[in-house]
Design goal:
With 395 residues, the protein is an alpha/beta fold. The protein has two domains: 275 residues, 3-Layer(aba) Sandwich (Aminopeptidase); 111 residues, Alpha-Beta Plaits (2-Layer Sandwich), CATH 3.30.70.360. It contains eleven helices and 16 strands.
Length: 395
């Protein structure tokens, strides 16, 4: 079976590259993937794979039934949305949509799943069970397309025994993949803080309640949350990326300062306890200096946990397909992914696909204007996903 999959992966590699380049050149933002959705539907139709569209508006769900289709169900997921970034790469497939770019590799995810779908559909007489193909919108924007698809029943009728997803990783070279069993990625919440005081002349601070000074005290005080109020064995990060004075300048004390940050954790119970500490510190610190502090917390994705047994099985299968030297152990990350919703509701494995090629200068990080992939990685992305699916169905 490995040989069959590798031969078909080679046979359809150029088609997979063409699909990836088409999607890359025509990126669409979260919840607006209308043309991408139509393109995916067109490809599934050409392959003869039945599907349902309109899930979470632009999502598409396909089904491949092998022999004895009720025996077991494995779901495969790819996200389709792009980012509001202007591409700086000078390549033939450069984004045609100004200010929108596939800077996180979702074009590679979608093309890999389409490629794996073609192979698995051709081999469906060789395995038992059903494969559910999930083409998901809006990974990059809250509330996340995964949560909406789940609410609309994507994990039912048929219900998957397991779900597998992959994500490009520019920190490991093309030809390799990485696995992290257990806790893998963090939850993510957006923190918005408003500090209100009394503005006035910068030379007369005694007549003012300075929200800039209060904001500085608040930012420092909030660092106690991850270091003092959370169980030290629970990984957590609290970072503030923007402090905005509303109406202030060199010699003007403003009436208000706004602070924006991100809070990330690996434990849901401590996560929400921390929210209360954040609110209390903001309120009481501002009051101590005569001002007002208001906190708004936008609850984002939960933490992503890879089922240990499934992930270890997938890791072993990856070694069979790629060789042991090309399968890596990767550390837990404090970045976030809405595949976490799937991992919280089903037995999941989310692994990393190496796309870097230092010799060719393909080393840029995701979410940057120069991000790109070595397209040889699509052979791994397609073939390994097909092989992992067949192996999981066979258990």
């Amino acid at each position: 079976m490995i040989q069959k999959i590798k031969e078909l992966t080679d046979k359809y590699h150029q088609e997979t590259v063409d699909i990836r380049r088409h999607i890359h050149a025509n990126p669409e933002l979260s919840f607006n993937e209308y043309e991408t959705s139509k393109f995916v539907q067109q490809k599934l139709t050409e392959m003869g794979i039945p599907f349902q569209n309109g899930v979470a508006d632009t999502g598409v769900v396909g089904l491949i039934e092998g022999k004895n289709p009720t025996k077991k169900v494995v779901a495969l997921r790819a996200d389709m949305d792009a980012l509001p970034i202007t591409e700086a790469n000078d390549v033939p497939y450069k984004s045609k949509n100004e200010g929108v770019m596939h800077a996180c590799g979702h074009d590679a995810h979608t093309s890999s799943l389409l490629g794996a779908s073609r192979i698995l559909n051709e081999l469906k007489g060789d395995f038992e069970g059903t494969i559910k193909l999930i083409f998901q919108p809006a990974e990059e924007r809250h509330p996340g397309g995964a949560s909406i698809m789940i609410k609309e029943g994507v994990l039912e009728n048929p219900k998957p025994n397991s779900i597998i997803g992959q994500h490009v990783h520019p920190l490991i070279p093309v030809g390799t993949v990485g696995f992290c069993p257990g806790l893998s990625m963090a939850s993510t919440d957006e923190i918005e803080i408003s500090i209100k005081g009394k503005g006035g002349h910068g030379a007369l601070p005694q007549n003012c309640i300075d929200p800039v000074l209060i904001a500085a005290q608040v930012v420092v005080a909030l660092q106690q949350v991850p270091s003092r109020f959370i169980n030290p064995i629970v990984p957590s990060v609290l970072t503030f990326g923007s402090i905005e004075s509303i109406g202030g300048t060199y010699n003007v004390i403003p009436n208000e300062v706004r602070i924006y940050g991100t809070f990330r954790m690996m434990n849901e119970e401590w996560r929400f306890k921390a929210h209360e500490h954040i609110r209390q510190i903001v309120t009481h610190t501002a009051q101590a200096y005569g001002g007002e502090g208001h906190t708004k917390i936008k609850v984002g994705y939960p933490f992503l946990i890879n089922d240990e047994e499934l992930t270890l099985r997938c890791r072993t299968a990856a070694e069979e397909y790629l060789g042991k030297k090309n399968v890596l152990d990767i550390p837990m990350r404090m970045t976030a992914e809405d595949f976490a919703y799937f991992s919280q509701n089903a037995t999941g494995c989310f692994y990393r696909l190496g796309v870097a090629n230092e010799a060719r200068g393909i080393t840029s990080q995701v979410h940057t204007p120069t991000f790109d992939i070595d397209e040889a990685s699509l052979k791994v992305g397609v073939g390994l996903m097909a092989w992992l699916t067949v192996k999981e169905l066979d258990i």
